[in-house]
Queue: 2 jobs
Job 1
Amino acid sequence: MTPGDTRPAAPPDAAGVEEAVVADLARLLARMPDPAGSVHGAALERELAATTGVRHAVAVSSGTAALHTALRALHIGPGDEVLVSALSVIMSVAPIVHAGARPVFVDCDPTGTDLDYNDLARKVTPSAKALLPVYLWGRPGDPARLARMAMDHGLAVVEDACQAQGSRVGGRLAGTIGDVGCFSLKDGKVLSSGEGGYLLTDRDDIAQRARSFRSHQQPSPPENGRPAEVGYNYRLAEPLALIARANLARFHTLAARRRHQSCLLAELLTSTPGIDVTDVPARRGWNGYNFLATVALDEPRAFCEHLARRGVPNSVGTFGLIPADQRPALAPFTTAPCPHAAAVVDRTLAVVLTDHDDEQRLAGYAQTISREARQWRP
Ligand SMILES: *Cc1c(COP(=O)(O)O)cnc(C)c1O
């Protein structure tokens, strides 16, 4: 994708979609609990599998639940280690801790677009069972390297593709590269239903165990000699499945709009001193989840915080993003530092985008970023 070759995406026909959803919701609520079971949940799973070309989609209650379910479906638990990107969010790591396993933080490359495979190789131990790459800001790394590394070390791959819906790399859709891909349907993601999540897998055994785990092991999974265990209530509510289906039907419009928003901001900020958007054109299959720029100003973190106070929401300024290995709650698991991840987080301006951001709002963001960058004195 280049800023030049994006057609202005038409805004999604929100009003028309909302009217239809409200009518469908009224019908649904009138017959809940539906004796037919989870009609919209099952339909959503079929539609997700069909549109992604994967054998199974399993709908759950959140992206966090999708990750926890994926890890448990792979029998990952106490005594096991999971190698996870340090360049990630707390929700990427919490499910590893919930599963009773130990997160091992892996640094990213200096650009933040892929894992640092040398760091990964140094940190693999015989207890390592899975690799959990996190496609922060919607950018998947090289799928061939990921597959090779997993193969060489006998690791399962669970992708955190929560921000990467629709991103493609090397012809592959993010979240369909490893054993399981995990997604969130929380508002703000490209495909959303307010809250919710799903996982994608080609493996029948994982899908079967995931379906059991999300609903207190009912139906019970094939145990194959393993002791029976308890599950969770991670079901996706029917009204949310209905909303997710309506948005899935216009996914191409939603994704094109997000890409257009990111590229428009890149165009508007192309020659702003201290705001480097030059690597945007390189990211062909990227979904444009956030507008991304490298801040080449003194004290870039303070600059991002300053922008948030001036009304430009962004990962560092609004959410206080720090690498996972620096989070106090994860301190018991921290071993070697991940310096690239720290530098990338500190230097990246990742502007939060939503469907409701029209060109006028984006022009306002660009104006604020450009003005504040020119005036910046930390
Ligand atoms: C949103 C998100 C999650 C968690 O999803 P929830 O639905 O909020 O539980 C996990 N990882 C990443 C990268 C996310 O963006």
Job 2
Amino acid sequence: MEQIPFNRPYTVGNEIELIQEAVDSWHISGDGAFTKKCQELLEETLGVPKVLLTTSCTDALEMAALLLEIRPGDEIIVPSFTFVSTVNAFVLHGAKPVFIDIRKDTLNLDESQLERLITPKTKAVVPVHYAGVGCEMDSILEITARHGVEVVEDNAHGLFAKYKGKQLGSFGATATQSFHETKNFICGEGGALIINNPKLIERAEIIREKGTNRSRFFRGQVDKYTWVDVGSSYLLSDILSAFLYAQLTARDDIQTKRRRIWERYFDLLSQWAAENDVLLPKIPDHCEQPYHMFYMIVPNLDYRQNMLSYLKNNGVSAVFHYLPLHTSEMGMKYGGRPGDCPVSENISDRLVRLPFFNAMSETEVEKVAETIVAFKP
Ligand SMILES: *Cc1c(COP(=O)(O)O)cnc(C)c1O
């Protein structure tokens, strides 16, 4: 039986043409014409002071850790329900992760638990906007400002989404984006660091250029470039930036396609969900979502496992999502114990993500929904 895949990378059509243009211009390393175009487009659309394209969201998070001068003994607060990179980037520099539980409704970090986890060692909080639905940024910013703690938004899911009318990624001192092929806008592997605190911009450019002031040199601000700080190689090749530029300029078209799929799922599944004790995503009125994923929260783990194998046997590739980090092998080394983040543990067992990709047809969406509705637990 032909499977409806969980994801299928999408091309808008002119990616190869733009890559050819990059090749013909003899500049295919980082910071070429397409890198600059992507950065300017993002700065303008998001209304942020600086965007730097990076090799991945993971690398943008590592840059954020370097910018905040994370050292052994520092603590960072991260949701347990996230991708490993959210925490790894900081642990790599010796930080101790402190795991915070999530809210039952949006699956974002539970801001009501934030203050009691802050200690004099807390350096940063890393809110992850799950499925691109904004965390409660008003409370998070108020609490962190009062304690002198930095905010780094992991916005891998949420490009072009808004919280109270303001773009996600524009709240923290820095924020990170991903252009991995599983995200809304892709270039294979790629990412971006958004820098909202202007004092961090120059150092971010240095860190991204192997610890040199090469960016200042190219702007004619110094007459030679040299080693001035720590750094690494975080520049995205202009070949990939060209691919990404094709995608970003087609953003309205891509988001319209995704919105249709999401809304169709919601319409087709709402009644069944209500009658079967299944929860569909909750989007608070003050959040505009980017239609990154469609998930369901089913009654329990057995139900979830049965449903996933039933769907697979009936041609639908649905998947679960994050395993809580506090009970992972590494998380336990940092003192995580079962029971610490009960909502994360519970939701992780019950979550099902449905196939969701830009080119998904109406018929495919209907087939997935019909198959679900016919499920006998
Ligand atoms: C995808 C993802 C990342 C990592 O992105 P890469 O670009 O693959 O490094 C980080 N955090 C979250 C929440 C993600 O979903």
